[in-house]
Amino acid sequence: MEGLTSRGSEENVGLINQGESEMGYIDDTLERAIRAEEEPFDDLDYEPAQVFFFYDISTFWVTADESYETVQDIDSDTVISPNVAGSTNRTTLQLALEEIGITEDDYTLDDVNQADQGSAFNEGRLDVGILQLVGPNLAGWGQEIVSTVDAQLLDYPDEDAETLEESEIVTDWFDREDISEDLVNTPDENLGIVAPYIHITRADLDYDMVYEFLSTLHEHREELGQYHDLLDLFEDDDYWVDTVFPEMPFHEAAADFYEEIGVWNDDWEVHN
């Protein structure tokens, strides 16, 4: 098994379909689209099966304009960039806005690279962008934003927060200081849109290949942190299945591996 780079989770699904990759991560929005056989995922030649949890990306709306206090302050004159075009996360964020009655007709959509948001705020080209926690850590480009502008998070009115919590969209609450101590005019607790990223494969991928991959990764789990701090989390066996797709079965080899290390849940489905 060889490591490859891709342009994102949607491409990962295609690479597996084309036989150019054995495994790739997707988020929960994409998982639902695959399950619903939405285009372009209505003609896959394989049954997807999940293998292991990678990380959560938690997203918050951010602005440098103090006139914006909540997401309901967004209007047709508001220039927003919910991640870069083509990103599944962008789709999730727009779906979240639709859940609370804010459609694409209600704002001006732009495509600003995350790393360019700080300058776009300073130049008046962007009203509302995003901050993201990758796992527990603020992304590097987010750290630059909060250090260069007076960044504040947009709050959700109680009714909107309740609507999102009851929807299919994954949400969670975060303390302001756990996001960034440099945020201004921001509530102590903030609702984030959470996208769990999980590696999937084709259900008919060779059993031994999947089992050996997981076993080797697990055997060297204490060394992974030297490549990235986030990988330190894999030292905890429970982290490998911290989040699962409840409607997608596991690859048979993954299920056997997790049973062996004591983290398997019999409520989960296995692809046979």
UniProtKB/TrEMBL annotation:
<dbReference type="Pfam" id="PF16868">
    <property type="entry name" value="NMT1_3"/>
</dbReference>
<dbReference type="InterPro" id="IPR011852">
    <property type="entry name" value="TRAP_TAXI"/>
</dbReference>
<protein>
    <submittedName>
        <fullName>TRAP-type transport system periplasmic protein 2</fullName>
    </submittedName>
</protein>
